[in-house]
Write a structure and sequence with these properties.
Layout (H helix, E strand, L loop, with lengths): L7 E4 L3 H12 L4 E4 L23 E4 L5 H11 L3 H8 L1 E2 L4 E4 L1 H13 L4 E4 L11 E4 L7 H11 L4 E7 L2 E3 L9 E3 L12 E6 L1 H13 L21 H6 L26 E7 L6 E4 L8 H8 L10 E3 L2 E7 L11 E2 L2 E6 L9 H19 L12 H11 L20 H6 L4 H22 L2
Parallel strand pairs: 1-2, 1-7, 2-6, 7-17
Antiparallel strand pairs: 3-5, 4-5, 8-15, 9-13, 9-14, 10-11, 11-12, 12-13, 16-17
Helix pairs in contact: 1-9, 2-9, 2-12, 3-4
Length: 448
């Protein structure tokens, strides 16, 4: 294979872009990381830091032998910068890996700045550089100019859906005589309960749903046929419209929680998750919405314990842009029509922080191999990493939807093993994880 110019351009300093730059540099390649912030702001970001988290502060489950745990374990074994930063910035979050957003972003930004092979350029990229290899990791808030360039490169219309982010309240404005501390099913880091829980009885829940359905929404300049929310991030208003009890079986489910004042399970619960190491703010878990800010304050203060809530940030709606990856990308995340261009992160159609980090790691390593004139080998299909890329490159292009990592994406166990473990789901999942990590180690020994 001919060696390409020894420079890798990475467009976008989010989770995928930062990880890609780090991985390329650790493989001995020169990387230029472009980030338009803070000179050019986005509707959701608040700082100029790299790898800023704008929605939740959770990197999902750390429960061993779960699919999210497997993906993170594979990344740890491959020296993921962002997984190290998450461990450094971790805050209590039950069985989930939750982080202090500011500490996390500062840690990543500092590590990138300290890497001599990475140059950070604070500028907006409107066209793909002509020299070297390019990783497009511009994320769901890709600028209009770059989106036009991506459309030119891919020869297809861009796709987009609309996504919302949850409100954050000041900790000392939560009435902790009402809100009780507990983790669902007693799962917490130290046994004391990592969440604040605001309990509602049936009458309070019904009144809240009525107010929610009647609340006035922001005018988001969304064409009627473009309001395609990703199912995993539905605004609470959309959920409420699907039925009176939808919220109670979704983000407000009371399962696994007991109100310490009554000794009984509440009718519904709103969980608050710690935002940072100082524990001075909490986000409303799963409460993404697009009500007007005044309406949010009015409706959300109907929740017991939040009557006097002070909001650090209200929920808001923003556009998420992604390509039709199955029609465009190889399992190594390369553009089929131009293999020196790779895509990573949410722009490729993965959903979730860790999934974005994962595609960034793979794209960075694959780009480094290209720059060195070495073969680019996709990760084994049995791994979570390989299965994620298999979905991105092999799903039905006509019905492509962003995806989180789940066991459904990984190949099934052989028939004999499935039969042996047919009555033990946990054992089956553990075996899928064991197989994945074994294949990853074989890949590392042969290629990494």
């Amino acid at each position: 294979m001919d060696r390409l110019p020894d420079i890798i351009h990475i467009i976008g300093g989010g989770l995928a872009g930062a990880e890609a730059a780090y991985q390329a540099a650790r493989q001995g390649r020169r990387a230029v990381l472009y980030e338009m912030r803070p000179g050019r702001a986005t509707p959701a970001h608040r700082t100029g830091c790299l790898a800023e988290l704008v929605c939740s502060n959770s990197l999902k489950s750390e429960q061993e032998s779960s699919a999210p745990w497997l993906l993170k374990e594979e990344l740890r074994r491959l020296d993921s910068l962002l997984l190290r930063a998450a461990a450094y910035a971790r805050v209590p979050g039950g069985h989930a890996l939750t982080v202090d957003r500011e500490a996390f972003a500062r840690e990543v930004t500092g590590a990138i700045a300290a890497e001599p092979r990475i140059e950070v350029r604070r500028e907006e990229v409107q066209s793909v550089p002509e020299d070297g290899i390019t990783i497009i990791a511009s994320g769901p808030l890709t600028s209009d100019a770059l989106a036009v360039e991506i459309g030119r490169l891919t020869g297809s219309s861009r796709l987009f859906f609309y996504d919302s982010i949850s409100p954050i309240v000041e900790a000392d404005s939560v009435n902790q005589e009402i809100a009780f501390r507990a983790s669902r099913y007693d799962k917490s880091l130290d046994g004391t309960g990592d969440y604040l829980n605001c309990p509602l009885d049936r009458a309070q829940y019904d009144a809240f749903v009525e107010a929610l359905l009647a609340a006035e929404s922001h005018s988001a300049h969304i064409a009627e046929d473009d309001t395609r929310y990703f199912e995993a991030c539905l605004p609470i208003e959309e959920l409420a419209r699907r039925g009176r009890d939808t919220l109670r079986f979704g983000p407000m489910k009371p399962m696994g929680l007991t109100d310490l004042r009554t000794g009984r399970r509440p009718w519904a619960v709103v969980q608050l998750r710690q935002e940072n190491l100082r524990a001075d703010s909490y986000n409303l878990v799963g409460f993404q919405n697009h009500m007007k800010y005044g309406e949010q304050a009015r409706v959300l203060r109907m929740i017991p314990g939040l009557e006097r809530a002070e909001f650090v940030r209200f929920g808001q709606i923003h556009r998420n842009t992604y390509i039709n990856a199955p029609a465009l990308l190889t399992p190594a995340l390369q553009l089929r029509q131009n293999p020196r261009i790779l895509f990573a992160g949410q722009i490729s159609g993965v959903e979730g922080y860790v999934e974005s980090i994962a595609t960034g790691l793979m794209a960075g390593r694959h780009a480094a191999a290209l720059a060195a004139g070495e073969p680019v080998l996709a990760f084994p299909r049995e791994t979570a990493l390989g299965s994620l890329c298999h979905y991105v490159s092999g799903a039905d292009p006509a019905n492509y939807q962003p995806a989180n990592i789940t066991f459904d994406l990984l190949p099934p166990l052989d028939e004999a093993t499935r039969q042996k473990l047919r009555h033990d789901k946990k054992a089956r999942h553990a075996e899928v994880c064991r197989r994945a990590l074994e294949k990853l180690e074989e890949y590392r020994a042969a290629y990494v």
